[in-house]
Amino acid sequence: MIFNKYISSLLLSVLLALLPGFALLAQPCDSLYTAGNACYGKGLYADAVRNYEAVVGQGQHSAALYYNLGNAYFKQSDYASAILNYERALLLAPDDEDIRFNLELARTFTVDVTEPLPQFFTTRWAKAFVGLFSTNAWAYIALCAFIAALVAAGIFWFGRESVIKRLCFGLSVALLLLFAAALWASYSGKNQLVDSQHAIVFDASVAVKSTPDSAGQDLFILHAGTKVKLIREVGAWCEVQIADGSKGWMEKTSFRKI
């Protein structure tokens, strides 16, 4: 009986210690994000963009943030920036129908008509899992799961009652699995944003060359808002590929990575 009270007291202490962190996690950069939403609601789209971009600049990444940023750019008729942020939102929430609808709507205002290559269902599922929370949220979940797993393992190791020991053993295993999954999701989500292999063309019109040189032959023309796959880099140039498989070289200043 005394041991059960000790366990309850210990778990309650751990929960109370973690609650402030969860409160902070629920409202990352809250004031800037809220200000952005308020500006958007008032039709002050340039101010909304500045606030949302400030949140991004502080290292926050979430599907909702990029979706709202894309909407603000769309309202200013900056379709390339809107597409870029919708694509970033879609990386984090691949099954979100609102993001897909707005992305397709923004694409109707571009010149080039390209379709993204289909993805395997396992890839879609993995991206959907990663998109449940922001990368920072996944990292915090991993930390909390690891700490809780240590507590459960400690109770299992030093406990005397067999029922409690079995429960804590199973709980510690489950928490370690959650820790591994959350750590992977945080890492994957960060890589999707930092090491993206796709980009959006931002130049109004750019000639794709046969070689990484301004004197190279013009192969085809791309326009702002077009999505390209990045193949390799040579100096200030990058080899790109569009949806139909056509390849060529363009300067890095002509696009922005998703």
Keywords, please?
SH3 type barrels, elongated, 5-stranded antiparallel beta sheet, disordered N terminus, two-stranded antiparallel sheet, alpha+beta, Serine Threonine Protein Phosphatase 5, Tetratricopeptide repeat, 3 domains, 7 strands, 258 residues
Major beta sheet, specifics? 5 strands, antiparallel
Head-to-tail CA distance between termini: 57 Å
Q: Write the H/E string, N to C.
A: HHHHHHHHHEEEEEEE
* Main sheet: strand order: 6-5-4-1-7
Total helix count?
9
Word description of this protein:
Helix content is 60%, strand content 14%. Residues 1-8 and 14-27 have low confidence and may be disordered. It has nine helices and seven strands; from the N terminus they run αααααααααβββββββ. The chain folds into three domains: 2-24 and 134-193; 29-131, Serine Threonine Protein Phosphatase 5, Tetratricopeptide repeat (Alpha Horseshoe), CATH 1.25.40; 199-257, SH3 type barrels (Roll). Helix 1 packs antiparallel against helix 8 and helix 4 (63-75) packs antiparallel against helix 5. With 258 residues, it is of the alpha+beta class.
Q: Can you describe this structure in just a few lines?
A:
Helices cover 60% and strands 14% of the residues. The protein has helices spanning 2-26, 30-41, 45-57, 63-75, 79-92, 97-107, 121-130, 135-158, 162-194; strands at 198-201, 205-209, 218-223, 227-234, 237-241, 247-251, 255-257. Helix 3 runs antiparallel to helix 4 and helix 8 runs antiparallel to helix 9.
